[in-house]
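Handout, page 2. Input:
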Amino acid sequence: MSNDLNMPGIATSVLDLIGNTPMVQLQQVGSELSCPVVVKYEVYNPGGSSKDRPALKMILDAEEKGLLKPGGTIIEPTSGNTGVGLAIVAAQRGYDCIFVVTDKVGVEKVDLLRAYGAEVVVCPVAVAPDDPRSYYSTAERLVKETPNAYRPNQYANPANPQSHYETTGPEIWEQTGGRITHFVAGAGTGGTISGVGRYLKEQNPDVQIVAADPEESVYSGGSGRPYLVEGVGEDFWPTTYDPELVDRVIPVSDADSFMTARRVSQEEGLLIGGSCGTAVSAALQVASELGPDDLVVVLTPDSGRGYLSTVFNSEWMDRFGFLQSGSPNVADVLSARDSGGRPGLVYVQPEDTVRDAVLLMHKHSVSQLPVAQGEMPLANAEVFGAIDELRAMEASFGDAGVLDRPVGDVMSARLQTIGIGESVERAVLLLDSVSALLVLDGGRPSTVLSRADLISFLSTDSL
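Output:
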């Protein structure tokens, strides 16, 4: 016998609370623009993000097709939000969950997934998608190893964009009274922008669909690396993304994403995450080109509560080179050192020989080099170690053959990092115990700061 209350003001389950999220106009941020910018505030979904919508649709679709059976296990690679949505659905419908995330995902998101009873497997982000250690490959392996497992695969599952076509798109059209002229959203799996874009263009083909994308993501023409913002952008082309529906792609830097998220949170009282900052930054750019008869709607997919240790932590933002302290700071030291223009980061790959590293140090008149895997621009996570002239000399003194061995065999621990906007006082403190620091600018390795650089700066009248 059912004990459902059947009362109009009481939902039968948490799944009934998915969707019908509110919209709010930005009043402070972009107040100088004549075109209004309206936020589709997806935080109001029970899992706190827009990913609740495809999570429910994908599971219901899998049940209907017999792909997910009672007592089964849902396995999915995720940046966190899709996992939360799937965990909520799983809790209601009796499934176990295993989620695979990269080590770029904040600890709050991992803890949140575990709070819902899910098992979480963390994989390195600085590997190719086909690497067996990648979170895509790990998820595929777990599906094969786990009995009665089902992987929704949000990157290829048509139920993902369909969920937004059936719910998000109609909500936006109705809430704006059909007045919307531009829709802006991040392009991650492509589900949101493709589903909403298809619905809106069916109502009015003139509605412009704009994808906000991290710099270096494939949608912006990059390789998929490196960027720090989570849950948006990709290093491959998901089949759930329909490029024919997207009129424009706007690349947004990590710095703009994070600073916009902080600004919206502090000035509007809307606590939004880093990828929301990406979308709002792009929306403000679009709105700056428009007039009062236009209406920009930007979808903010989640809350800033999952980013309290990163985007909203000023110490973290300092360390990664996103914030500027008062002068004198590291940037001032580098400007004095590189008065003719700052050279690019000089580094070696782990497979380069020690001999190559020594020759490179002599060529650039430096005594140490970072060891990193990949091409510029590098991610901080792609720096694995360091090699210095003294260590190379000591190693080769005992065995001349060392010079022809890979740097990765003899490298030492990676250089300690410092943000480009951090104070000279902090640089002095750090260089008291190490000979050089790796400078991060906008989250990316930029150059090496040595004791000699700092002594030269302090010995001048720069202060």
